[in-house]
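hey so i finally got around to running the thing on that chain from the lab meeting. sorry it took forever, my laptop kept dying and i had to restart like 3 times. anyway pasting the input first so we r on the same page abt which one it is
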Amino acid sequence: MKIILGLAGEIASGKGTVAEYLNKKHNASTHRFSTMLRDVLDRLHLEHTRENMQKISTALRKNYGEDTLARVIAEDVKKDDAEIIVVDGVRRLDDIKYLKELDGFNLVYIEAEIKKRYNRIIERSENTDDQNKTFEQFEKDHQGEPELQIKGLKEYADIVIDNNGVMEDLYQQVDEIIIDKRNI
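ok and heres what got predicted. didnt touch it at all, straight out
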């Protein structure tokens, strides 16, 4: 049986770190909601800013249905033969509409304090506008439409990870999840 982990959490909570760790240590396959958004931005020759990604996400869902991105991810996961599959970037309940119908799916909520998350986003500079972002701008990013439902996902999570400690603590929690799911 597949182990399918949908990763949710606020900006820079550690979703990408968990996905990368699962990929390296457990040979997991990864699917990111942001990949399809980045693909559209690339095709339109637009910069990969958080604002542009939020606009594309909102436009796609508004014009093609709130579950548009969820349908794409679910189809990708169904076709994936990996034992462990990670879906990175769950932001709303609609994102897991189809995934929760798949055997082996679990929603994992990753939480971390806002100051830690701010420092992480500055360090990683994933989007072109991250490195020079002020704390006030970072707080404002959380008010973007695609970000508003994230906190509420915690109550629907099958597993909650506390990512306020050191990397070894995070990795230990992730390894325990995999051990637990393999023993079911």
